[in-house]
Structures are given as C-alpha cells and as structure tokens.
Amino acid sequence: MKRRNREVRFANVPYGLTQHQDRLQPPANFLLSPYFHLMKLLNIAPDATRTSEILHAVARARGCHSPEQIAEFLAPLPPLRNPFRTLISDYLVSRDRIARAILKKEVVVVYGDYDADGICALVQVVRFLRLAGVSVRWFVPHRLNDKCGLTTAGIQRCIAAHHPSLMITVDCGSSSRDQILSLKKTGIDTVVLDHHSLVFSDIGAVAHLNPRTNTAAQSMDNLCAAGLAFLWTDALAADFQLGDRWQAIRDTNIILAGIGTLSDFMVLLDLNRALVKNAVHNASVADIRNRLPGLTALAEVTGSTEVDIRTFTSEWAPMLNACGRMDDATAAIELLLSPTLEQARAHAATCKAANQERRKEQERAIKLGIQSGEALLQDQPDTRILVIAEHSWHRGILGNVASRLKEHFQRPVIALAWDEQPMGLDTIGSWRGSGRCTDAIDLCKLVQDAVFAGIALEGGGHQHSVGVHVAAEQLGPFREFVQKNCDIPVSAFAPSYEIIGNATDLPPASWYRLLSFLAPFGNGNPQPMLCARRAHLAAPPRSRQSRDPSAQVFAMSGLFRSEQPQDNKQLLQFDWFDPIRAKDVWFPGRAYDLVLNLGQRRATGHASEPYYLWRVADCEPAA
C-alpha cells in the first residue's frame, strides 16, 4: 500500500519542553501508518507547579469556575441532586397515570431496549413498580427479529404476550409517533421515558419524559435512559412515600444508572459525573452490591474482587450488552431481576458465554473492517466519513466495530451489515448498521438528513452514535451523500490530547493518585495525558498476547530511553494497545514523542504494592 506522509503539530507542550508552532516533517524515508494522522497536544496547566494547581486547572477546563464548582468536581462523592420533578414538564401527568394504574390494578408493561443502557433503565422501572404494587411485566424486542426501538413487530408480540392497558417505553419511543398513535386507538396508553433526539413535537403519548421536549431541561439533555429512569423513579418514590423500603432499592439502582451512563458514552460532567461516582462507590461496598443478586453474580463471573470504573466499562457493561447484541437480551434482564443468587448465577453464565462469542465475532469483524477501510482510503484518500459494508458481519456488534474503526482511522465510521427479511415468497435484502464519530460532527443529523432526502430508509440516535438502515440500491448514493454533506476536513477528526506534565515529573503512584481525583474519564471529560519527549526506542518492541498460542497480539511493548537531562537517560517501558500502528511506526534507535496514560495493576501473590503501567495513547516520530 502506498504510504502517505503525516504532519505533526505540537501546541503549547508543557514543562520546559521546546514549543513547536511550526508543522514538523517526520524523518526522511520513515515508514508511517497508511492513513493521515495529525496529533494535537494542548497544555491545560502551563503554569502549574503543584498537584493542586493541576487539579484546579483541569476543573476549570471542564467549565468549573467558582471555588464551589471546583470543589464539587473534585469531590470523591459529589451530591446527587434530582431536578426531574421540576424540569420534566410531563412528570406530574406520568405520576398520576402510574397512580391510576395502581388503583385500578391495571396490567403495565415496561418496553425497553436490548443494550446495557436500555436493560439498566428497564430493570430500575420494573423494580420500582413492583415495590409500588403495580402488576408489571416487561418486554424487550429481539434485535434481529423485531429491530431496534418501539417497532410494529415488537408491539404485536408484546401485546399478544401481556395484554397491557399501559405501556411504559424506556430508551425508545421518541421517534415512534405512528406506533404510539396506533396503540392509542386500541386503548393502550403510553408513557415514554427516553433520551434520544426528537423527530416530532407531539408523539401522542400520555406523557413524554424526554429532556429535549423542554428547553428549561437542557441541563438534563446528556442523561441516558438509565440515568433518567433513576431520577424518575426516585421522584415517584418520594411522592408515593415509599420510605425505607425504597432506600434499599435506590442504592442499587444508582449502580445500574452508572453502568448505563458509561455504556452509552454519555458526557461525564455535572449530574452524570455525580451519578457515576456514586454508582462506583455503592458498587464497591459489598453490603450494598449484594442487595441485588445479579450484581453479585456479575462480580463473581467476571472475577471483580475490587470495583472501579474499569469494572463497569470493561466487565459488567459488556456482559449485559452481549446477550442482546448476539441474540436475545432476556438473560441479562433476568440476571438483574433474579430474587436469589443461585438463579442469578445461571443467567450470569449465559451472559458470559454470549460475551465470549461477541468478542470473537468483534475481533474478526474489526480485522476485516481495517482491510476494507484501507482499500477505500487507497482509492479515495480524502474520504472524511468511512462507510464500510460487509455481508459477513453480525449486526449485533456493529456499534463496537464502528467505534474501534473510528479510533483506528481517526475519522467517523459507519459500519453496515447485510440483512435479509422475508417478503412474501421471496426475501429482500438491505444494509443495517451503526455509526460513531467525534465532537467535530453531528452524525445523527447527517444521517437523518439522508433519510429526509430519500437516501436512507431509517436513521437516528445521538450526535456521536447513530443507527442507520439503507436499501441495497442506496448504498452508493448514501456514501456520496455523507461525503458531500460533511464539509469538515479530515484533520478536524484527529485526536486532541490535553497534556498536564511529563511522565517523569512525578512518580507513577503520584500521577495515578492525581488522576483518580479527575476520574471518571470519557465523553466530555477526556483523560488528561502525560508526555514523553524525544524518547528513543532502545530495543526491538516485543509482542504481547494471552497464553493461548492461537490468540492475536493485543499490544506491543517498547523500552524507551528518555533524552531529557533531568531524566538521567532512564529506561521506561511503554505498552501500545494498537499493535498494528506500533509495528508500522516503532523502530529501534528512532526518537519519538509519545502521549501516555497510566494504568494500575492490583497487587497479587506475594506482591504487597500495586504496580503501574505506562500505556501509549498516541505516538509520532520526533523531529
């Protein structure tokens, strides 16, 4: 494949490093990765000399200006305020409709979604309604048979199974006006609890509990369905005076709200930050966690002896997601609603098996996606949005595949898989999939514009995450449409890193403690990075893989010698968890500028202290 030069720009590199405002050309004849890449470094603590000054500088960069705001941002357990009652205009209507259902002993169905956010939202609402005395059932559509959201196929199966008079939709419904009006004609009321973008101002529901329906609720726009479910049920529990009986459920519902928030990649500031911090705290307390047998079983099956943010994002959320992604979300919901630990363990085993299958399918799909993406870029190097379509992909993993490919190619990616549905005696095929992007573009709006233009059949979601359905004959025009209507240069999608210091300015333990005050990291609160300037690769990098000989390499490890005078040319090991790029870029004797983050491994065996791992977030050849 033809290699293209990359340009590197360092902006305001901190702590005495030479500042480069000019663009730097890599060394001549240097082998570079096969796609354009521009690394942007921004120093957000240029004058900080103490750890407290660094912490305050990051808090200010997150929009905290008053001493009270900074203190709350850095608090280990920030206060959890509930504005639902005052900001969601249909709250009182929803409360009164629930009260009527209790009084008349109506059958109520909670209709959810099959991802971790939808599952955690559904479970919270079901637990509340059971405590309130409602005759409640639940239903989640099948990803492959019913499609996503409040669909006609899903509704028909739900009504046939449960015959409700009230349907509460969670994590779906805001764009389903036709289905809700159809339900209304049959005498079934709907309460919609959702966070997705609006298509219609009035959808015909008894109550539409979506912050986007009220400009006064803009501060809640970044909440996911699980976060909204927690606030809604907590407000209802107070109005229904459920007292201490609710408190035990509330403490574990916070954990579910935190899992949903992290799994749906919501902005981790303000209320979401408070939710996640309280969630991790509650999950780390065994007496609280064990009140919900499903969480205990999750901890057992994933080996989670200590709970932190990574437990949520890398262990529990993928386990809950896997069943719905690969087939049917029932086991994940039954896991969290199990009354006994014995029952929960059986469902946890099912979730674990589904997650193992998901991992295998995902790694295969990513490898194929990289090959297809590189072929597309070879033909059209200036492609701003990659639309990659593969017949063999499993539709349930496309969100994760698009996310990983977005990171690899440093631009938005829409991943599509082939879907065939019966049509009379024949079958009709089309493309369905997911897209992921950065803050530089509203991918949801772009896809919805394609739908309105007749270039796609369906589309919707969030700014950074979108689902799309394209007819077979629309694939080419859809590719052309998204390119033509994206006027942002490829360089705008390149990663931008906030630098707070040199890796060697403090011991790893001190850096790790400082970063723990700033966590949780994610959308809206990116992890501040550390820098290693002009570090020389001292020896050939080593491949890292699991003990299984057939396993793929998951990282490359390199020993680097710092050339900074204050570092005394010490050797440091850096691990890069993008082995494809590492093999393409790292060569012994070369000098590199590296962007780093820091991980911790807990003490095991005879070790009494944890040890720390330097992870490469990005790397460029030094000038």
Q: Explain this structure to me?
A:
The chain is an alpha/beta fold. The chain contains 20 helices and 19 strands. It has helices spanning 51-61, 67-74, 84-87, 91-103, 116-132, 152-162, 177-185, 225-239, 243-263, 270-284, 286-289, 293-302, 309-326, 330-337, 341-379, 398-409, 443-452, 475-484, 508-518, 579-585, and strands at 9-10, 40-43, 107-111, 135-139, 166-170, 189-193, 207-209, 386-390, 413-423, 426-436, 458-461, 465-471, 496-502, 529-537, 542-544, 555-562, 571-576, 591-601, 611-621. The strands form 3 sheets. A 5-stranded mixed β-barrel has the order 14-16-17-19-18. Strands 4-3-5-6-7 form a 5-stranded parallel beta sheet, with helices on both faces. Strand 11 and strand 12 form a beta hairpin. Helix 14 (330-337) runs antiparallel to helix 15. The longest helix is centred in the middle third of the chain and has 39 residues, at 341-379. The chain is globular and about 80 Å long.
Provide a concise account of the structure shown.
With about 625 residues, the chain is α/β, with parallel strands linked by helices. The protein is about 40% helix and about 20% strand. A hairpin with an 8-residue loop joins β16 and β17.
Looking at this protein, list some descriptive labels.
single chain, 623 residues, alpha/beta, 5-stranded mixed β-barrel, 5-stranded parallel sheet, 20 helices, 41% helix, 20% strand, globular, disordered N terminus
Could you outline the blueprint of secondary structure elements for this entry?
Blueprint: E1 9-10, E2 40-43, H1 51-61, H2 67-74, H3 84-87, H4 91-103, E3 107-111, H5 116-132, E4 135-139, H6 152-162, E5 166-170, H7 177-185, E6 189-193, E7 207-209, H8 225-239, H9 243-263, H10 270-284, H11 286-289, H12 293-302, H13 309-326, H14 330-337, H15 341-379, E8 386-390, H16 398-409, E9 413-423, E10 426-436, H17 443-452, E11 458-461, E12 465-471, H18 475-484, E13 496-502, H19 508-518, E14 529-537, E15 542-544, E16 555-562, E17 571-576, H20 579-585, E18 591-601, E19 611-621
Parallel strand pairs: 1-2, 2-13, 3-4, 3-5, 5-6, 6-7, 8-9, 13-14, 17-19
Antiparallel strand pairs: 9-10, 10-12, 11-12, 14-16, 14-18, 15-16, 16-17, 18-19
Helix pairs in contact: 1-2, 1-19, 5-8, 5-9, 5-14, 8-9, 9-10, 9-13, 12-14, 12-15, 13-14, 13-15, 14-15, 15-16
